[in-house]
Design brief:
The protein is globular, with a radius of gyration of 22 Å. It folds into three domains: 122 residues, Rossmann fold (3-Layer(aba) Sandwich), CATH 3.40.50.720; 191 residues, Dihydrodipicolinate Reductase, domain 2 (2-Layer Sandwich), CATH 3.30.360; 61 residues, no CATH class. Strand 5, helix 5 and strand 6 form a beta-alpha-beta unit. Helix 1 crosses helix 12. The chain contains 14 helices and 15 strands. The two termini are 35 Å apart. 36% of the residues lie in helices and 21% in strands. The strands form two sheets. It has a nine-stranded mixed beta sheet with strand order 14-13-12-11-7-10-9-8-15. Strands 3-2-1-4-5-6 form a six-stranded parallel beta sheet, with helices on both faces.
């Protein structure tokens, strides 16, 4: 039985806690730290945590010493480093929500601290644990496509998700959150390296905040949707239409934990999520492209687009023998292989299995972490050192975007390893 303590009881913590609730013979949550009283109380009730083990501040939790076997750190992005370092210092193995940290120096501190402490610091790159991407990797590594020449991979955010998280919400501004590429796409950078089995040599990137700007606001649009917006009937971002209902779960519970339409409307009148998307304090890009040349010469293009009509990832792998096309959309996944010689198109049997959060990845990461603690690690374990490469790529790409230049990754890695 693994005893788990949790720092940060928001949406991601609730997702991982479901594994504990469904597998009480393997793991239980014995303590929680969460600054928002109603969120803390709800999490404690759902996980049978006694009041004396509920804390407002993560510092108070860890001031008790090592009271469990492992720590789950699901605080906000800007508050990952210190809780994780403290937990490692106390002797905890740690499961840390991605991204590791919002800047390069803090990432290196975490990697070195875990290695110095001899503890597992596993990062929640959940897509490695899906059947879909496991199959993509299997096909690429088998050689069925031949030598991989080019890869195109797109992370398509549905328009309302972009507005919810990256315009109105938590990850809207680089002063309070990580850059878009790190916050949203370190998943994608991780699985690309994992699938292809090699590192990037050169990286360039371009992208801007194009649409969600004051100059694009409709005439007469107020600061809040609830203040008499003249285009309420035609604006797809109109907050009351998106949120003022009694639905449960994400993204509705982020607006307020009170679940009536009236409560939601009141929250929109005063909180972040009722603001006009053209009058927010956002500065992160709403689209970005990353171009990579790998050590073998393979070229990879990764696209983040915040203006999609559906939430999905799409991809194309062109090899010397065949082309593979895929779509990962949390339920209706598809994968085909077209033979260059015969033109035959094969539909790959994905044996979907678990289709819960992130296509089963949320369950998979928890299973992997618990197995590792029990001495049964698998090859997919996303340790801090293994996860570092995706973060280095994100930081290098952001530097390339801002400075309009191409980054040499071996030199960038060498520079990063000197940081702590």
């Amino acid at each position: 039985m693994i005893n788990l303590v949790v720092a940060g009881a928001g949406n991601r913590a609730k997702v991982y806690a479901r594994y504990c609730q469904e597998n009480p013979d393997q793991v239980r949550i014995i303590a929680v730290a969460e600054p928002v009283p109603e969120i803390r109380a709800a999490f404690a009730e759902a996980n049978n945590i006694p009041p004396e083990n509920c804390y407002e501040d993560w510092r108070d939790l860890f001031a008790q010493g090592k009271i469990g076997d492992a720590a789950l750190i699901t605080t906000t992005d800007m508050l990952h480093t210190e809780p994780a370092l403290t937990a490692l210092d106390l002797g905890y193995d740690v499961l840390l929500e991605k991204p590791m940290a919002p800047n390069l120096a803090e990432n290196m501190r975490l990697v070195h601290a875990a290695e110095d402490a001899g503890r597992l610091l596993q990062i929640c790159h959940v897509l490695r644990y899906t059947n879909f991407f496991g199959k993509v990797r299997e096909i690429v590594q088998s050689g069925r496509l031949g030598r991989i020449i080019n890869v195109t991979h797109s992370e398509n955010l549905v328009f309302w998700h972009m507005a919810h998280s990256f315009v109105r919400g938590t990850w809207r501004n680089t002063e309070v959150a990580a850059p878009m590429l790190l916050a949203k796409c370190c998943h994608d950078l991780d699985i690309l390296g994992w699938i292809l089995g090699e590192k990037a040599e050169w990286v360039s990137s371009s992208g801007t905040l194009t649409h969600f700007r004051p100059e694009n606001a409709p005439a007469g649009a107020p600061l809040r949707c609830t203040d008499g917006c003249p285009v309420a009937d035609t604006c797809k971002f109109y907050a009351p239409r998106l949120y003022a209902n009694d639905k449960h779960g994400w993204p509705f519970d982020v607006v307020t934990t009170k679940a009536t339409a009236a409560d939601r409307l009141h929250a929109l009148e005063t909180g972040l999520y009722g603001r006009c998307v053209y009058h927010c304090d956002n500065d992160v890009v709403d689209h970005q492209t990353v171009n990579m040349q790998l050590e073998s010469g393979t070229t990879v293009t990764m696209v983040m687009n915040g203006h999609g009509d559906e939430e999905c990832r799409t991809m194309r792998y062109d090899g010397t023998l065949a082309t593979m096309r895929g779509k990962f959309d949390y339920g209706e996944n598809s994968l085909t292989i077209t033979n260059h010689l015969t033109g035959e198109v094969e539909t790959v049997d994905l044996n979907v299995g678990d289709s819960s959060g992130h296509g089963g990845g949320d369950t998979g990461i928890m299973r992997s972490f618990i197995n590792s603690l029990n001495g049964i690690p698998d090859e997919n374990v996303t340790s801090a050192r293994q996860s570092l490469e995706s973060h280095l790529l994100a930081f290098a790409a952001e530097e390339a975007r801002l400075q309009h230049r191409t980054i040499n990754m071996p030199a960038f890695r060498e520079m990063a390893n000197r940081l702590d």
